[in-house]
Amino acid sequence: MHSKQRNTRRRFLSYLVGSGATTVAVSWMWPATSVAQDIDLEELCLKYPYNALCEDYLPGVAALDESDSPYEAAAILSTAQAGDRLPAEGLSEKAYLVIEEGPAIADYAISAVCPHLGCTVDWNSTEQKFICPCHGSQFDETGDVSRGPASSALSLVTVVVKDDQVRLVDRAYTPDRS
């Protein structure tokens, strides 16, 4: 009985040492990759902006005013009024920041690219609509078509305001991002 017990212990210890050595060898052959490397921070921070990984992350690109200076949220909100549409550069196409009641900067901007032929529309603050200089298409303050020949609305761009910075994110705005 005594030798059988010793044999069981010996077998257990050899399995323990062998599995430990195998684990070390395998970890040298396949180094662990960080989970954070596999995460698309842009996507994560848009969906979950209060995630710890997103604390110092600024998505997209800075929204620039007409003099190519970055917009600052506090400066915009100190002078803007609800209903204003502010031209913003930064992405490949011009967009208009939307100022809502409060005032507050909306979490979307309206693309200035006319869906008819790709011309750049202008915001007419007097008439409160976007007008395409090429073929006369008109869009209301939300970007919906009010007069053709364009048959679809102006697209929306995602806007993120963080650390007093206004950022444009190169992806279509989806209101139910939660």
Summary tags:
178 residues; alpha+beta; Rieske Iron-sulfur Protein; 2 domains; six-stranded antiparallel β-sheet; 24% helix; 26% strand; elongated
The Cα radius of gyration reads 28 Å
**CATH class label of the largest domain:** Mainly Beta
The average pLDDT is 83
CATH architecture of the largest domain: 3-layer Sandwich
What are the segments in which pLDDT stays under 50 over at least 5 consecutive residues? none
Main β-sheet, in a few words? Answer: 6 strands, antiparallel
**Helix proportion range:** 10-25%
CATH homology superfamily of the largest domain: Rieske [2Fe-2S] iron-sulphur domain
String of helices and strands: HHEHEEEEEEEEE
Strand order of the largest sheet: 1-10-9-4-3-2
Q: Estimate the global geometry from the Cα principal axes.
A: elongated
Query: How much beta, percentage-wise?
Result: 25-35%
Number of strands: 10
CATH names the topology of the largest domain as Rieske Iron-sulfur Protein
Q: What is the number of domains?
A: 2
The class by helix and strand makeup works out as: alpha+beta
Helix count? 3
